[in-house]
Amino acid sequence: MVDRIADPWGPRTPYGSGQEWPVRVDTFLDGDLNAEDVDRWVQSASILHSNGDALDIAVRDGRIVGVRGRAVDRVNRGRVDPKDLYGWQANNSPDRLTRPLVREGGRLVETDWDTAMGRIVARSKELLEGPGGWGHFGFYTSGQLFLEEYYTLGVIGKAGLGTPHMDGNTRLCTATAAAALKATFGADGQPGSYADVDHCDAIAIWGHNVAETQTVLWMRMLDRRRGPNPPALLAVDPRSTAVTREADLHLPIRNGTNMALLNGLLREVIQHGWYDEAYVDAHTLGFDELCRTVDGYPPELVADICDIPAADVRRAAELLGGSQRLLSTVLQGFYQSNQATAASCQVNNLHLIRGMIGRPGAGIYQMNGQPTAQNTRETGADGDLPGLRNWDNPEHIAELARLWNVEPEVIPHWAPPTHAMQIFRYAEQGSVKLLWISATNPAVSLPDLSRIRRILRQPELFVVVQDLFLTETAELADVVLPAATWGEKTGTFTNVDRTVHLSEKAVDPPGEARADLDIFLDYARRMDFRDLDGRPLVKWTTPEEAFEAWQECSRGRPCDYTGLTYDRLRGGSGIQWPCNDANPDGTERLYADAVFPTDPAVCETYGQDLDTGAEFLADEYRAKQPGGRAFLHAVEYRPSPEVPDEEHPMLLTTGRTVYQFHTRTKTGRAPQLNSAAPDVWVELNPADAGRLGIAEGDLVGIASPRGAVQARARLSGIRPGVVFLPFHYGWFDQDPADRTPRAANELTITAWDPVSKQPLFKVAAVAVTRLADGGGVPAPAPTVGGSAPAVAGVPATVGGPAAEANSRAGGE
Ligand SMILES: Nc1nc2c(c(=O)[nH]1)N[C@H]1C(S)=C(S)[C@@H](COP(=O)(O)OP(=O)(O)OC[C@H]3O[C@@H](n4cnc5c(=O)[nH]c(N)nc54)[C@H](O)[C@@H]3O)O[C@H]1N2
Ligand SMILES: Nc1nc2c(c(=O)[nH]1)N[C@H]1C(S)=C(S)[C@@H](COP(=O)(O)OP(=O)(O)OC[C@H]3O[C@@H](n4cnc5c(=O)[nH]c(N)nc54)[C@H](O)[C@@H]3O)O[C@H]1N2
Ligand SMILES: [Mo]
Hints:
about 800 residues, alpha/beta, Rossmann fold, Dimethylsulfoxide Reductase, domain 2, 6-stranded antiparallel beta sheet, 29 strands, about 30% helix, binds ligand MGD, binds molybdenum atom, metal-binding, oxidoreductase activity, 4 iron, 4 sulfur cluster binding, iron-sulfur
């Protein structure tokens, strides 16, 4: 038995290069239950991160009572993340929404489905038939629904209403992953495989706290590090985390300077001749310009911009340049930071010029964050066109029009799809009049929250919120729809390395809550969307039928699902797309043949200028004659849009802890997870704390030009001049009489990457002041991971008997 709060990663199962990762099966069951007490085990996968850990849901008396990892699965080989071990308890929470709510006289009151849907449909018809039509509809969805639900929503938006104003919270999450993959390779889709961990000789971790955010992937890396021939480890993060402490080399760069670092590293690699000339010549475009640009970034300049020793820039380049099988992971420290897409593309460049792609151990993970974000992108629920199609390619539009049997003109394709930040802008300005929010909590997760609250409160904006709980966002809605969730509905989703899993319904949802698919289908029916022959536009009623419709849409595209079926996904391991006649068992790695989907007929985008975001025209793109080669993009470093000044002298960055998921609607309702990190804290370097007279546990005020929050100080290993706030803490569980502002996004800035349009959650300027003495009581911050204390005497975070889980190497 292991207390997986005290030890989130559990026992090691070391293994060597090229060996198979050993099985270790993790199980957690409610209270004193044993495996014999479980009525049924129902196949599923994790829903609290993008790793795609396969697990079975334990059911007893019609309730979920626990989970157990699936030993047969290629992704986790039985292991389960702490959030997944304990987080399912939120399904059983007594405060689940069980009936629809509508706003009456300023208050939300319970009603029936007919009334709630009737209001949405009446408002929709009024708007659609009036002047401005589709332009009034905005949809803001998620990276946490199922593939079948996104595809259905995408068809409703694109072929039913014809609105381009649809996006996911994936804009906040993995828009940069998609943008960087498109920009370099021509289309979305992760080149690497999780099995690359088994083969690599070096791992580079770029702005990714993998130990806390993809714990099972980290377990795999740690098991390699403890076995024979361990891979070298490089970590780039302004904080001290479990990853940077394990690393052979840690570059604690100033947040917002990734681009300068990467330019400097590429310069060193090129100048030392650590690149593969033959690969560069045959398979890439843009090497000469890349050389010219990075030439301006000698180690001393990089050291100055990033505030790290020049010798460490050289050492990092040596580590990267000396590796034969390099694995890179990139996540929010890049995606939500300054020059997000440009910097992420430099990691692709590094792999391309070294020929480190498409073979075992040489992998790139432009990571996802949310469990089903890949599907939001593939199916077009983020506004992109389904099947990774190019909005600017008339032939792609014609294909969709044929598939859906609608006029091509109905499908919005006259401009790029509207990104989430712009949808909220339109709502602010009043042109978007109906905003339908599903499975996301923007009142806590978007930047500059006082503005977001103002937008959502506007009386003229009709807000629909579809959720499990009365969230901070739902409180502001006109109609609240109670949704079923994971474990209560069936569907599929795809993880970071393209592994598709089936998640089956295990139990009934509470009260009148309905699956999101059924809600969208009900809306389509009531709106009476038709195709050209007068038949219903949406022709499916079950998840499996929706999946089959999606398969047709994916046919022949990079994300080809045509070889998959629900039956094939049952029983064994998840399967990686593309899975089709040519690859009946799925595809472990993309680009093994070094042919990239950059051909103008195939590519998902004609590209953008990575500095400004300006879109290239089709002819400009064709003139480059990519012919299946990948693009090496060269970009100069530019400072962040907000840098410290006298009034706001420190840099703020934000992120996560291992125990909480986002705005905590689930993990805040699981006792073991909640008590491990019950309230907000702020991480400070001891030197800054000393200068400001702040001790561990003192109450601190953090103010930016947009707002102010209060948090208890945790003196940690973060770099001097930088403070870190977890963004998990909204106000749903605060005493209504004392809602002291504590959400990190009160402070963050409305600014985004020009290419991916992902908001810059990782750089803002703030002032930090001491407000009150903490009386020697430590901050409510975990002692594990990034918030590990730099001072002695803070008691360790433990879960105790209630958190004891089973972990068995080799199986059951
Ligand atoms: N426990 C837990 N796991 C999760 C989630 C969760 O909420 N909780 N959410 C899931 C989702 S949706 C996502 S997107 C992922 C996110 O996973 P991560 O990206 O790993 O998480 P973050 O904490 O947002 O940021 C990662 C690191 O970036 C560093 N950083 C900040 N600014 C910079 C910078 O300018 N440059 C560099 N190089 N680094 C910087 C931070 O110090 C932080 O340690 O996690 C997924 N997994
Ligand atoms: N400052 C700062 N802000 C950030 C970030 C950061 O690092 N720093 N990270 C950003 C990132 S990467 C992300 S992904 C976002 C996450 O931001 P959000 O998406 O707002 O976070 P969640 O708390 O996951 O919200 C998901 C909502 O969906 C509901 N839900 C769960 N399952 C279902 C379902 O099956 N059906 C329905 N209808 N509802 C469901 C949950 O109850 C919850 O209310 O936050 C972003 N905001
Ligand atoms: Mo995310």
